Amino acid sequence: MLRALLSRELRDRADRIADAAPDGYDCFGGHPRGVEMALALTRPLYDAWFRVDSQGSEHLPAHGAAVIAANHSGTLPFDAMMLHADVVRRSSPPRSPRTVMDRFVPALPFYGTLVARGGGINGTRRNVEHVLESGHLLVVFPEGTKGIGKPFRDRYRLQAWRVGHVELAMRYRVPVIPTAIVGPEEQMPALFELHHVHPFGAPYLPIPLTPIPLPVRYHIRYGAPMALHEDYDGDPRDPEILQDAALRVKARVQALIDEGLAARRGVFR
Amino acid sequence: MSRYLITGATTAIGEALIRALLSCGDTESILAVGAEQVRRATVEIDGRVRYVRTDLTRERNLRQLLFGPAREHGVEVVIEMASHRGRSATGPRAHALNVLETRAMLRLSEEHPTIRRFVYRSYGEVYDVSNSLPSLIDEAHPLDLRPSAPQWVRDRVEADLGVCTRFGMSDLSIAVLRAAECLAPRSGSQLYDYLGSEVCFRPLGFDPVINLISGEDLGRALALAACSKAQGIFTIPGATTLPLSEIVRRTGRTSVPVPGPLMTPLYRLRRAALGTDFDYAINRGRLHFGGILDGTRARTILGYAPDVSVTFSLE
Fold first, then answer.
1. How many CA atoms lie within 13 A of B183 on its CB side?
2. Can you give the CATH number for the domain in which A89 is found?
3. Which pLDDT score, from 0 to 100, does residue B233 have?
């Protein structure tokens, strides 16, 4: 039924992803038809509400593993949904990335299952290692919940940037694709956060200014792949190397954000 | 190595293991041990198999078995699978078979003149499953060490760890196989009992993927471990990975989602009324978050890859 919501091109993409994964369900609960369902459910948001503008998708590798490291914002994770949908729509051949979600998400009834079917994975180390070992695209948000929950005054200023993604990229010798998402910061500014309320294990309960996200325009920009494993000779577990590499990725993402902000003509355009 | 002693041999998995060992050309003899009164012909399917009925909870019997028939046969490999399979088997008597017998079997095997290898069949259910742990379960995954866990789980974890503590300290080469759930009768499968009802309740809003292993694959994995010299723990996945709702559907049952807090009283009521075995407390994590065993180590070291899909027919 949901398939009917897809355009012919998207149906074709979903079918090509299904053909490339004949085994059906993966160990995370993902399924090619779940990707199709995710595409169908996000289509109104992607095409009509957020009118996603995507640039630089030629940097998404046609095959092999890679880490897509993006900024995270917007109170609720619509940015993750749009980025996931954008990678499926723009990659050539079509690829379904595995998007890392916070550990409380699988405990959310319905949503946790829906996200897992579409390609979301619980952000534990063994899970992400398996994604890279299997040659998939891995989407990570190194700011974590600090990014999505930052106050409006800090919009488009990257928060503390974790180093795990660069360690994995160097260990598995895969590129990091710095990615900026411009738009979600203004979609539903948080009024305040209830830090003593933990629904389903969430770190806090956000109270947004608007009950639904505003129809801001999303601009997704993929940067050139960074082959960090070629740039550093030392042990990829060395904290200094990791910190340096992570700061380079962070600076690249910040530069892409700044370019996107300079290029956009307004929050809704 | 080609002379084997198998405990728990009268189960479906025991039978599959005997067939797998017999299909290896160099198997000379198999001493199949069980507590059940069975027709010899059902176990002794080949001239190389001999069935011995004994109660292994008594150490005297165990000693007699190992230093009597096992020594006569020159047994080199022990494949330990004896345990109470039902959740309802509780108390000291169940503990005696589930844990103490395994410990005694290992200790006596170390003293034995001909035994060189010890393979212990453990369970994927010994692993802890929660939303904060990896969905992909490898050998280093945390175990379910909750003091509040039912005896069915605690005994399995204790027996497993009891064998693991002998790694590197024993002259035997030891392998522990933590296998995915085998949907077979008399195999201790909680899911098999769960699917025994026409209506299967599952937590509302959750539909985890579950990995199942066929009896043939588990028998083959145990046979490969018996024939190998590799030591350590091996997680053994099966060939079938499906969401719970799909497993229920393929078994011809009706899946009814109910709010999570109702699951415990519903299944407690079912157990009390019908005397069934499924215990939601054992399966809460799995019925919410799944958890799939990672067979990488078993594949690279034992050469095991799941091959036979599970058939969804209940006896």
1. 27
2. 3.40.1130.10
3. 98
Examine the pLDDT at A5 and tell me if it is beyond 90: no
SS3 of chain A: the string is CHHHHCCHHHHHHHHHHHHHCCCCCCCCCCCHHHHHHHHHHHHHHHHHHCCCEEECHHHCCCCCCEEEEECCCCCCCHHHHHHHHHHHHHCCCCCCCEEEECCCHHHCCCHHHHHHHHCEEECCHHHHHHHHHCCCEEEECCCCHHHHCCCHHHCCCCCCCCCHHHHHHHHCCCCEEEEEEECHHHCCCEEEEECCCCHHHCCCEEEECCCCCCCCCCEEEECCCECHHHHCCCCCCCHHHHHHHHHHHHHHHHHHHHHHHHHCCCCCC
With an 8 Å Cβ cutoff, is A22 touching chain B? no
- Identify the pLDDT of residue B314: 67
CA-CA distance, A201 to B259, in Å (whole number)?
17
Say how far residue B75 (Cα) sits from the centre of its chain: 22
Residues 205-234 of B with CB under 8 A from A: 205-209, 211
Number of structural domains in chain A: 1
Percent of chain A with pLDDT over 70: 99
Residues of B in contact with A26 (CB under 8 A): 241
**Is residue B199's pLDDT more than 80?**
yes
A27-56 residues touching B, CB cutoff 8 A = 27-29
Q: What is the pLDDT of residue B94?
A: 87
Number of CB pairs, chain A paired with chain B, less than 8 A apart: 70
Q: How far is B16 from chain A (nearest CA, A)?
A: 26
| pLDDT, averaged across chain A | 93
Q: Can you name the CATH fold of B3-184+213-237+293-302?
A: Rossmann fold (3.40.50)
Q: Cα–Cα distance between B136 and B221 in angstroms, integer?
A: 19
B294 and A CB contact within 8 Å: yes
Nearest chain A CA: its distance from B258 CA (Å): 12
- What residues of A are in contact with residue B202 (Cβ under 8 Å)? none
Residues A14-42 pLDDT 10s: 999 888 776 689 999 999 999 999 999 99
> Looking at residues A224-246, what average pLDDT do you find?
93
Residue of A23, A26, A27 for testing the chain B interface, max B β-carbons within 10 Å: A27
* B-chain residue closest to A30, CA distance: B209
A122-154 pLDDT, tens per residue?
999 999 999 999 999 999 999 998 898 888 888
Provide the residue range defining the domain that includes A216: 50-263
Q: Please give the residue of chain B at the shortest CA–CA distance from A100.
A: B134
Question: Residue B135: which of A23, A104, A122 has the nearest Cβ?
Answer: A122
pLDDT in tens, B201-260: 999 999 999 999 999 999 999 999 999 999 999 999 999 999 999 999 999 999 999 999
pLDDT tens sequence across B59-84 = 999 999 999 999 999 999 999 998 88
- What is the pLDDT, as a whole number, of residue A73? 93
Where do the structural domains in chain B lie, given as residue ranges? Answer: 3-184+213-237+293-302
